[in-house]
Amino acid sequence: MLFRKFGGKNMTSNRLSETQKLAYKENGYLIGLPPVFNRSEVNKLNEGLSELSEFLLPGETHFHMNGWHSSSRWLYDICANPQILDYVEDLLGPDFYMWGTHFFSKKPGSKETVSWHQDAPYWPLNPHNSVTVWVAFTDVDEQNGAMQVISGTHREGLIKHRSSEDSTNVLGLELENSGKKQQSLWYSGPVKFRSMTMP
C-alpha cells in the first residue's frame, strides 16, 4: 500500500527533529518518541488483537499473523496512524510503501526466543532503504523480554546469517557472530529501525 502525502503536508504536529534524524542515521534506531496511542487506545488495541486472533487456525500463534494488514482494516488503520506516517515520512520522504506487518507475542513463561538478526535478509527488497516501526501493545522491561539492539550495525551492510539450530528460535536464521555490545530498549512507545540494524 502506497502512502502518498501530497505536497508533503504535515498530518500531525509531532515531527522528528534534526537531532533525532541524525541519531537514527548514526545508531540505526530511534526511541523516546511521544506515545502514538494513549492507555485507553492501547487497551482497545489488545481487544482488537484478541478478536483478530480468532481467525488463527488451530496450532497457529500470533507469529503467524504475517501481512494481515492487507485483509484486516483494524490492522491497516493502526499502520496508517497519521503520527506514525509523519515519523516515517521524516525518515524516508513523502512517498513510501507499507508492504508488511508481523506480530511477535511472548506469553509469560514462554521459552520462545528471537535470535540476533537483521530484518533485511528476510525481506524481498532491494535496495534495503526501509523503516521498521515497532509498536508494543504492553509495557516492556528487563523482566518480560525487552527488545535489544546492537547500535550502528546498519552501517556494516548485510551481515552473514546461518540457519538456526535452536528449537526455541521463532526465526529460521541467526547471526554467525553477534558478540557485540547490545542495548536493551525498555520502552513501550514507538521505535524505528533500519532494516539492517540488529534487533
Task: Please give the structural blueprint.
Elements: E1 2-4, H1 18-27, E2 29-30, H2 39-52, H3 73-79, H4 82-92, E3 95-97, E4 131-134, E5 147-149, E6 161-163, E7 173-175, E8 183-185, E9 191-194
Antiparallel strand pairs: 1-3, 2-9, 4-9, 5-8, 6-7
Describe the model.
- The radius of gyration is 17 Å and the shape is globular.
- It is built from four helices and nine strands; from the N terminus they run βαβαααβββββββ.
- The strands form four sheets. A three-stranded antiparallel β-sheet has the order 2-9-4, with helices on one face. Strands 1-3 form a two-stranded antiparallel sheet. A two-stranded antiparallel ribbon has the order 5-8.
- The protein has one domain: Jelly Rolls, CATH 2.60.120.
- By secondary structure, the chain is α+β, with helices and mostly antiparallel strands.
- The model is unreliable at 4-8 and 184-190 (pLDDT under 50).
Please tell me how large the radius of gyration is.
Answer: 17 Å
Shape: globular
Poorly predicted tracts of residues: 4-8, 184-190
| Multimeric state | single chain
Q: Could you describe the largest sheet, including whether it forms a barrel?
A: 3 strands, antiparallel
Structural class: alpha+beta
CATH architecture: Sandwich
Name the helix and strand elements from N-terminus to C-terminus, one letter apiece.
EHEHHHEEEEEEE
The helix count comes to 4
Give the strand order, joined by hyphens, for the main sheet: 2-9-4
The CATH superfamily bears the name q2cbj1_9rhob like domain
